[in-house]
Amino acid sequence: MTSLATKLETAAHPARRNGLSDLSIRNLFIIPTVLFLIVFNIFPLIYSLGYSFTDFKASSNAPANFIGLQNYRELLSDEKIWANFVITAQYVIVSVSGQMIVGFGLALLLNRSFPMKGLVTTLLLLPMMMSAAVVGLFWKLLYDPSWGVINYALGLGDFAWLSNPEAALFAIAITDIWMWAPFVMLLSLAGLSAVPKYLYEAAAIDRAGAWYTFRRITLPLVAPLLLIALIFRTMEAFKTFDIAYIMSTQPTTEVIAIRLYKQAFQQWDTGKSCALAYIVLIMVLAITNIYVKYLNRVKER
Amino acid sequence: MAAVQSSGRTAVNRIAIVAVIIATLIFLAPIYWIASTAFKPRNLATTVPPTVLFQPEITSFIKLFVKRVQLNKPVDEATYAAAPWWEQRIYDNGERVLRTGDNVQFSAYPNRFMNSLIVAITSTVLAVGLGTFTAYGFSRFKVKGEADLLFFILSTRMLPPIVVAIPMFLMYRAVGLTDTHVGLIILYIAFNLSFAVWLMKGFMDEIPKEYEEAALVDGYTRMQAFFKIVLPEAATGIAATAVFCFITAWNEYAFALIMTNRRAQTAPPFIPSQLGSGLPDWTVIAAGTFLFLLPVAIFTFALRGHLLRGVTFGAIRK
Predict the structure, then answer these.
(1) Listed residue (B253, B216, B228, B230) closest to B136, CA to CA
(2) What is the per-residue pLDDT for A64?
(3) How wide is the angle at C-alpha B276 spanned by C-alphas A140 and B249, nearest 5°?
(4) Partner-chain residue, chosen from A25, A142, A284, that has the shortest CB–CB distance to B223
(5) Which of B6, B13, B17, B27 is the mutation pick for testing A, counting most A CBs within 10 A?
(6) Phi, psi of A88 (to 5 degrees)
(7) Which of A4, A47, A59, A109 to mutate to test the interface with B (most CBs of B within 10 A)?
(8) What is the DSSP string of B235-248?
(9) Contacts of B313 (CB under 8 A, 6+ apart)
(10) Which residues of B touch A133 (CB under 8 A)?
(11) Sign of CA dihedral B140, B145, B148, B149
(12) What pTM did the predictor assign?
């Protein structure tokens, strides 16, 4: 109805001839952004796809030689690269599951009315707004083996969290959990507050147990948002660079992004790095695709 | 029965609130610790057991901003008495402030902080500006393949920084954009643009179409309607989006680490690099960290009503 009215107005008002047509405004508004992203994101990726088939080294003046799929073949048969992927997977599992448990737990605790609830919730959200690099840095202070607060508080003596090959990855994951559990909490709280009260009242009338109510009412209704949090955090954890790079130099914490960084900017093995970047990119895009599809589905509800 | 149940529920509530208090304290402890370290005298920063009660001082902030060297002999009393109060704090620590002529030499910190401000503010203004137009375009007009285009826009945000950084570094090196503000600003616009489009589209969708249509009827052009009707309506959304983009650019580490090393280096790669070798002065590092985190903490409070929307790219709005 309104659109019909607009059309009629457009026809009836020659005064609008001075203005741009809707079509040109649309193009004027959208095309610059798309062009910008193509020039600064897609074009570089095409550029590096080209280099991924060469033996180019950015540190030397030697011209790049086309070597076909050799970089990819070498990478996929390189046990060290697989080890990096395994470390990344371990990190993703520990860190994301920690975030889900802590975040959802916090949300369950917060999902009731109490004084200064808004303030407490915002305070809990602070860690995720901070720079991962700086968070990594000050957790190093907390983890210090000889005078760190963590060892003192837990009575761990001089346990060297970050230089212990076994513990370092967990130490980084704990920091990441501290930083990102609030994210899960935020989404869970939104889900929990959307559960209609009458469902709980009905369950109480039916004398349903707390566990039954939780499993049959709370969880299914919060699940979509939990899943969004899960996919998003998985994607982000898979890409982790800052925290791990700053906190530890142990080979056991060399996640794939760190491997890629070293190969590209310390060994200057540019061609091969481009190939590895592509392998990582395809994995990230796969997760992104799932994420966006799911996000759109939840949005439509 | 009902009374028993409700008293049971009150008990559960009480326990939960106590748990909330404990969890909040644990969560805030790391932030408190870095903030309190910034105000400690150096000899209390790394004690065993950790020092909790101390006389707070701001010496570390003075040290953060000036270049200084170790004194090999104590300063004579006349010089000490003539020095301004902040310089006396430096003398108290057995160091002296470096000067060129009469001018105090500043440390690298204020410069890196400025770089962070320049890069974050410029990239935010441009990304949000461009993103607002695009969001309006997507919100109000039919676009062929809209879903695919929006996915493409979002997917650029999800690219791992290191993956993009490799070709960008080669290109920047070729055109001389490494270690420049412009180079970093371009990267941050690209990074934030997709976010701004998605978030702003959510805000635009909430502004009733009827507002502009009424304006169009009154003889406004579409452009006039956009600038005079839609933009003021979207002001809160624009502000929230801008703050999110600012925080992202402010916090960004990987691009800054790779693309800059001195002139355009921002605070996130600089602050950890202070650890360096030897005995780091944690009070100074903590002071730098504290100042760097302060704007983010303030913005978090300003944004609290929009955080959920921000972290889900505008998909979830409650």
Answers:
(1) B230
(2) 86
(3) 70
(4) A25
(5) B27
(6) -60, -45
(7) A109
(8) HHHHHHHHHHHHHH
(9) A295, B154, B195, B198, B199
(10) 251, 253, 268-269, 271-272
(11) negative
(12) 0.91
Q: What is chain A's pLDDT, residue by residue, as a tens digit (301 residues)? A: 444 444 444 444 444 455 788 889 999 999 999 999 999 999 999 999 999 999 999 888 888 889 999 999 999 999 999 999 999 999 999 999 999 999 999 999 999 888 899 999 999 999 999 999 999 999 999 999 988 999 999 999 889 999 999 999 999 999 999 999 999 999 999 999 888 888 888 888 888 888 888 888 888 888 888 999 999 999 999 999 999 999 999 999 999 999 999 999 999 999 999 999 999 999 998 988 888 888 878 765 5
Max CA separation in chain B (angstroms): 84
| Homologous superfamily of domain range B117-311 | MetI-like (1.10.3720.10)
B138 touches chain A (CB under 8 A): yes
Cβ contacts of residue A103 below 8 Å, gap of 6+?
A180, A181, A182, A183, A184, A185, A186, A187, A188, A229
ipTM: 0.90
Closest-CA residue of B relative to A240 is: B160
Please give the Cα distance from A16 to A6 (Å, whole number). Answer: 12
Q: What CA–CA distance (Å, rounded) separates B102 from B65?
A: 16
Q: Among candidates B123, B157, B118, which has minimal Cα distance to B265?
A: B118
Regarding the domain delimited by A80-300, which CATH topology (the fold level of the hierarchy) does it fall under? MetI-like fold (1.10.3720)
Q: Is A66 helix (H, G, I), strand (E, B) or coil?
A: strand
- B-chain CB neighbours of A25 within 8 Å are 137, 141, 222-223, 226
Q: Which two tokens stand for residue B68?
A: 């200084």
Establish if B276 touches chain A: CB-CB under 8 angstroms.
Answer: no
The whole-number pLDDT of residue A7 equals 47
Tens of pLDDT, residues B289-311: 999 999 999 999 999 889 988 98
Cis upstream peptide for B49 (omega within 30°): yes
The whole-number pLDDT of residue A290 equals: 87
- Structure tokens, B283: 């009070």
pLDDT greater than 50 at residue B156: yes
Q: In terms of Cα–Cα distance, which of A225, A243, A238 is closest to A174?
A: A243
Give the H/E segment covering residue B100: strand B99-100
CA B71 to chain centre: 36
Reduced to 3 states (helix: H, G, I; strand: E, B; else coil), residue B103 is strand
